[in-house]
């Protein structure tokens, strides 16, 4: 249970001003255009969320979750903040906790990349590790009780802490940035799920604005979202932890909103990592593993369009930078240690880019729900 913070409205309004001033100093993330030779009639765009001050799309969520706690009166001047995270959210929350002078604890799987751990500690956060990835939730909740703190609980609150109707959320930002393009309303937006909060925000915004855009959500190999969505089973569980950091969860998280999703894919880890490497090469800078999963989804959506003779645009996200994964997805030694042979999938991804024909060996499964 979250302790009710002593209500200190003067401190709360100072804290909100600090967060607003920080947002004022920051710019909007870039929307990077790209053409791929196999898809001459399709324009591709990558929203580069790695350029936020804390390096990922989670910069937006951390701000929203803390503002939500402040405006609910559950975060006061002496409230330690606690989060369960695979790393990126905790980095961003540690940054904001330091801005507000609050203690911050991150509960992380032991496999979290050392770069993220170093970033959390650099912002003054403390890391608590668990061996079993699904143990992060209970550990974080218990730690918040022991410390008299507030459990931010991104997996439950991501979808409601973000203002889905606009207020410069990521969806509104994408559609604004597309306004002067050849195909301003994307045919597809592609986003992989961690909390599911970003796909929920995008999917709701599409419905709210009555856009014809479809939302594709590619899930990594070890995750519950794909089967839970296909089988409409919110209790579905996946026993093994995801190897693609930031996405793939052992359970259908409460922040994942299944009914706004038009297509889901289940992407093997070799394909996600191969796509990470290929896209990094095309962009001339390294992107993270979840961006590789997004790239597989983008190629699938493009091939669907091409097959139906459609022209238009597709948008996806660069969720974070690959510099965080130099010791994992970009290390051949790590791949060997984890028995991951990505060479065949690299060739397949390059072939899809060149020919415009999707290779189904890049997927474990996929399902599309036609809109009526
Ligand atoms: C690197 C990375 N990519 C993608 C995601 C997924 O975003 P969301 O939690 O909004 O589903 C996360 C979430 O933590 C992440 O850290």
Q: Give the proportion of residues in helices.
A: 40-55%
The overall pLDDT, averaged over residues, is 96
Q: Gyration radius, to the nearest Å?
A: 20 Å
List low-pLDDT spans.
Answer: none
Structural notes for this entry:
The protein is of the alpha/beta class. It is 41% helix and 15% strand. It contains 13 helices and eleven strands. The strands form two sheets. A seven-stranded mixed sheet has the order 1-2-10-7-8-9-11, sandwiched between helices. Helix 4 links the parallel strand 4 and strand 5 (126-130). The longest helix has 19 residues, at 289-307. The termini are far apart. The chain binds pyridoxal-5'-phosphate. The site of pyridoxal-5'-phosphate has 20 residues, from helix 3 and helix 8.
Write the layout of secondary structure elements.
Blueprint: H1 9-25, E1 31-34, E2 42-48, H2 58-71, E3 81-84, H3 88-100, E4 104-109, H4 114-122, E5 126-130, H5 136-147, E6 150-151, H6 154-161, H7 170-177, E7 188-190, H8 197-208, E8 214-220, H9 225-230, E9 263-267, H10 269-283, H11 289-307, E10 312-318, H12 332-337, H13 343-355, E11 365-368
Parallel strand pairs: 2-10, 3-4, 3-6, 4-5, 7-8, 7-10, 8-9
Antiparallel strand pairs: 1-2, 9-11
Helix pairs in contact: 1-2, 2-3, 2-6, 3-4, 6-8, 10-11, 10-13
The structure holds pyridoxal-5'-phosphate (PLP).
């Amino acid at each position: 249970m979250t302790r009710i913070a002593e209500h200190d409205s003067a401190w709360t309004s100072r804290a909100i001003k600090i967060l607003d001033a920080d947002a004022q100093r920051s710019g909007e993330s870039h929307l990077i255009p790209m053409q791929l030779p196999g898809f001459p009639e399709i324009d591709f765009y990558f929203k580069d969320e790695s350029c936020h001050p804390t390096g990922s799309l989670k910069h937006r969520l951390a701000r929203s979750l803390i503002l939500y706690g402040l405006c609910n009166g559950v975060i006061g001047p002496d409230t330690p903040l606690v989060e369960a995270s695979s790393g990126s959210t905790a980095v961003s929350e540690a940054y904001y906790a330091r801005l507000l002078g609050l203690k911050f604890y991150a509960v992380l799987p032991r496999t979290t990349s050392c770069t993220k751990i170093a970033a959390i500690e650099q912002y003054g956060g403390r890391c608590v590790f668990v061996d079993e990835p699904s143990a992060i939730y209970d550990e974080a909740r218990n730690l918040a009780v022991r410390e008299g703190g507030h459990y931010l609980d991104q997996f439950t609150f991501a979808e409601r802490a973000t203002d889905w109707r606009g207020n410069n959320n990521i969806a509104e930002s994408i559609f604004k940035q597309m306004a002067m393009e050849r195909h301003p309303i994307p045919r597809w937006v592609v986003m992989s799920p961690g909390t599911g909060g970003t796909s929920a925000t995008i999917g709701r915004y599409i419905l709210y604005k009555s856009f014809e855009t479809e939302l594709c959500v590619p899930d990594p190999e070890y995750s519950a979202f794909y089967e839970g969505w296909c089988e409409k089973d919110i209790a579905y569980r996946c026993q093994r932890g995801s190897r693609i950091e930031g996405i793939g969860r052992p359970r259908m998280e409460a922040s994942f909103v299944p009914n706004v999703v038009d297509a889901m894919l289940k992407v093997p880890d070799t394909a996600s990592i191969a796509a990470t490497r290929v896209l990094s090469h095309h962009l001339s800078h390294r992107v993270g593993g979840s961006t590789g999963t997004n790239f597989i989804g983008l190629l699938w959506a493009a091939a669907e369009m091409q097959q139906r003779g459609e022209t238009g645009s597709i948008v996806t996200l660069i969720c974070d930078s690959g510099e965080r994964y130099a010791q994992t997805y970009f290390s051949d030694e790590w791949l060997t240690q984890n028995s991951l042979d990505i060479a065949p999938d690299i060739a397949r991804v390059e072939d899809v880019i060149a020919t415009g024909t999707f290779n189904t060996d890049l997927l474990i499964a996929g399902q599309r729900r036609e809109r009526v």
